[in-house]
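Review form for a predicted model. The reviewer records the input and the model, then writes brief findings.
Reviewer: anonymous (R2)
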Amino acid sequence: MSNSRIAIDWDAARASNRANWEDRVPLHEKAYAISELDDPNHLTGVIRTDLAALAPFLPGGTVSGLDVCHLQCHIGTDTLSLARAGARVTGVDFSPGALASAAGLAQRLGLDATWVESDVLEARDAVDSDFDLVYTSIGTINWLPDLGRWAGQAAALLRPGGTFYIRDGHPALYAIDEHADGLQLRYPYFGNGEAQLWDDESTYDGDGKVAHSRTYQWAHPLSEIINSLIAAGLQILHLGEDKTLPWKFSPRMVEVAGGFAWPESERDLVPCTYTIVARKAGGQPPRNEFKGPLPR
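Model under review:
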């Protein structure tokens, strides 16, 4: 695996990234615990965590009965878990192979979903509806160069009073050398507009290699993420940070309840994820009768 910073045209970077994600589809179909969804009561671990974090900000603490748009939905396991939780779901992704896989899984499980092939930076023009909740989670915005445009798309997809939610890997985590013997900084925390070029045949989950190994990602500090949402007209309701991840970022991480974490002696030194909940102005905010604790 190699990494360097490079200036590259977005269309070229997007094409390279999409080829890589197309290659990941059959690998993730085998690696993801898809068979567990055959249990009609099963929700993915990501969705169980995110529903608990969202509950204080949703009517009755649930997505049931809401129109939900899942941005960068990949093969749809989390999208269909939202549907199983009672939401009317639309999944958006730029990979036709991923959406075909998602549609096949939805048919097999007997769940209704709408699938839209689109770059997330063009989602508003591609999707006909608007939504009560725009949702994105885990491994998403590091693939995008322009967070102002991203946040604008999310805000435009929301109805007045609608809720935006993101949980993702923390920018501080992404600055760490995942292969070092300790917590050692290697990659940029602050972005300068240049992409990080990766050449890696592996994928974050499962065995096998991708044929298109070159990808481009962008560093975004937490301040940029939050300010892009504010600039798009969204009100920040909650910011949380946590010590666990749903995937093994580093070989040094250990399995814990809820995913993976650094060894206990290092666990309080660096955040692994952040969570942001925001709301679009206008309309009537959903009545919230949920009385549980706020998420971290």
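Findings: The radius of gyration is 18 Å.
Further findings: Helices lie at 10-31, 45-54, 77-84, 96-109, 123-126, 147-157, 171-174, 222-231.
Recommendation: see findings above.
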